[in-house]
Task: structure prediction
Amino acid sequence: MFGFLAELAAKVGHELAPEIVSKLAINKFAGATTPRPRPYSLWSDQEGKICDYVSWPSLTDRSFFGRHLRAAPESFVDGLPVDTPYESEQNHGQVTGLFKRTSPIDCPRSSLLFPFFAQWFTDSFLRTDSNDRRKNTSNHDIDLCQIYGLTEKTAGILRTKTGGKLRSQFVGSEEYPDNLFDADGEVKADYSALPYVSNEKVFEILNRFGDAEDRKKNYFASGLERGNSSVGYTAISTLFLREHNRLCEELQSRNPGWDDERLFQTARNINIVLLLKIVIEDYINHIAPIETPIFMVDTSFPEEEEWYRTNWISIEFDLLYRWHGLIPDEMTFGGQDYGPSEFMLNNSVLMEHGLGGIIDAGSRQKAGRISLHNTADFLLGAEYAAIKMGRDYRLRSFNEYRTQFGLDELDDFDDLTSDQNLEAELKGLYGDIDNLEFFVGLFAEEARDGALFGELMTTMVASDAFTQALTNPLLSTRVFNAGTFTKYGMKMIKRTSSLRDLVDRNVKNPADVKVSFAR
Amino acid sequence: MFGFLAELAAKVGHELAPEIVSKLAINKFAGATTPRPRPYSLWSDQEGKICDYVSWPSLTDRSFFGRHLRAAPESFVDGLPVDTPYESEQNHGQVTGLFKRTSPIDCPRSSLLFPFFAQWFTDSFLRTDSNDRRKNTSNHDIDLCQIYGLTEKTAGILRTKTGGKLRSQFVGSEEYPDNLFDADGEVKADYSALPYVSNEKVFEILNRFGDAEDRKKNYFASGLERGNSSVGYTAISTLFLREHNRLCEELQSRNPGWDDERLFQTARNINIVLLLKIVIEDYINHIAPIETPIFMVDTSFPEEEEWYRTNWISIEFDLLYRWHGLIPDEMTFGGQDYGPSEFMLNNSVLMEHGLGGIIDAGSRQKAGRISLHNTADFLLGAEYAAIKMGRDYRLRSFNEYRTQFGLDELDDFDDLTSDQNLEAELKGLYGDIDNLEFFVGLFAEEARDGALFGELMTTMVASDAFTQALTNPLLSTRVFNAGTFTKYGMKMIKRTSSLRDLVDRNVKNPADVKVSFAR
Result:
């Protein structure tokens, strides 16, 4: 799979035009698996039992996660063959132990800005319902719900209703999302109807830190319930909020007759496409295991392809994106170290160092490597839950997923990794490579040839990303034009291909700010 | 457009294989307009004003009707140029008068079974929300919600929960849907959670007849609130309910290990595909303006086509299907005449004559012609409402829709009709053919060359039908197989291409029952 990419990349600009290379590479990944509609989903019968047969809800009810492969046979226990010891709680704990970080392993290529963006980006569509983990509460679209919310009603609450803008606050010349709480620590009346405000769980976690009242002072009103989860997340939201409000001003000066609604809708349309450009041309190009960036947003061909289908986020996409290894035990901003309890749910770090300061520091620090044995302790519970989901929902084995995505099955654990300790450890737990669980295999597979992770994860990330980003209705040939975005909007879209471009327009002294997913 | 069809039909079987002819004809109609995603919808801003610009909700929120063409400019009043007199209430009444039946005009081809089926069929997806007419309460899919409801919750209420079956009652050997009310005229406890039961409006209409208590005795529990609206509707629902329960028995005997859920889901999967087969191979072939049936369900090619897109019912489709002219002033069953107050909301007619009796009588009577000046008085209010919707939502003119669907603009009213009185009447109201409203034009355009209605209506019906029936997920190449339907189910699907086939399996003494959309 990756040899193909390297060959293509070598031809860019002389043998093949960049657009052709991009199209060929996108189609290679997007076509790696069968297109939607998929026959199965996490829809379950009335007793909650996962169904391994096709039903009308499995074909149509997008409140449930989709799935790429039919559930494993029921004769498996917890999704694994009954002849193996993996169904036990003890085994579940042992497998979780595979993820535990003993000493930190650095990512060979990525800066901390990469997980900042990845976490923020995926929170908009990998939205496991905490009350029912079979369900996904997203719209299945890249819709910038982090700043606009999941519905027009939420957007309405977050809007100023003048000039198309989103509510915000200024601290000096720095613009941030508005505070959710008033000076007395109560949710402001304007925000009382935000959907997550009635959910006490969301704020419960604040109390764990012992200084909830302090943290509430800078807790932002946001589109999603996890909108304040970490300094990196809040920084990216702030950047897109600034761009939205900047776009509104530019649109208003060029279209003085437009009302608030049209300014809002048009700025949002542009902003979503800017995000799509950054996702494909900056983020995915960084992930791709090649040195030359080759992927680009090209609206000319996707509608002709069989993978151009309405989005439906799959459970496999949800699980594979648990890149906890990226998160270091500590982060450094302005020369000061911050542990998890300080960089999580604590916007005072952002306010102190400013948006430029956080992005710059993030771009200069190493992320951790995405692999086994590299998850910080505070995230091991999440690994345990992910393994449980894979078993509860009877996901097929690692090798079966390789086949589904056009890759050869592996014959042995030494095909998976050159780390002999890990090989022995996996062999001890699974016996045969064909028993290896999907989730564990994804993270066990060695990153080769400059990739950030193994071949299956790279293929699946790219496949799911292209078939759910390039299908965005704003990129349809009948929508992607100046009638939708205005001439100014089209110019902004053309001029944006990286997070750098957004920083240049929205952060003070941008020349002093490093912006890079690569370290 | 229709010359093309006649040429194709003449080649079936010698020059071209039937599958090729079907594919060419389907693609001709399905490709007559631009494919989805459509830029605009009936989504409106927060003041309820129709928006003529692209917004995220206009691209994604399917709770609103879609629209094929952008709203007409605001300088029009009520959707029409301010220089014409058509914005007035007086004009609205005059235009409604165009529909009034003076003396009944017969349909040249269709039996009454045709409107029975058409009304029943379209009630599942042309579901204008009575509280907000911009909205469509359907799932936008052909999902047999008439008998299964719009959600799994409703389906659960209508199911027996044993053997996969739907609740029903037997009157002698004749199976019907179960009664909604108990002997005391109260909604049975089992049905109290049906979504429409809490809506008093639904039952209010019963009281208009003066014998509500009698009618309640045979009022059926159904999937939709209009499930008892007329004897024809209830007959078709009864037929599909019988087929569902019959399929369950056949599936159970072949798969003794299956639980209720799997039997239900599999029978529904088969039943929906049987409906799709009947829609394309019986109903659409009847509508098509050619003598030889050429359209068939063929799952081999739709996924390769650009029109293969997730469904989104448009307001134009909703309006064009108001085929009130089909409904005669009286219907005859068993030699007895019934007026609207008797054939509406009155299942005793069905119980008295039996399912076979109603279908036979329907097949032997003439339907009315779909045209202006042929709407029965009791339906004129519906025409008034339809004209109002076209104006409120600023639909484009008849000629603009012709262009959008690949047809030439008409130059004059005499291109529209050879009826000189009608021509004069329309000229008096509209002046110029370019001012002619979409809705009125559809019904004014003369049916030529054996068509049931004018060229634009035929083209739009076929285009919207093919692009929303053949996109059903059950017809996907990865779903349409014995794994989904069982071998028995595949055999039933293969053996069903007309309503006749369903009658043969579910009505007693079928040889005595005429079943035909043609008279």
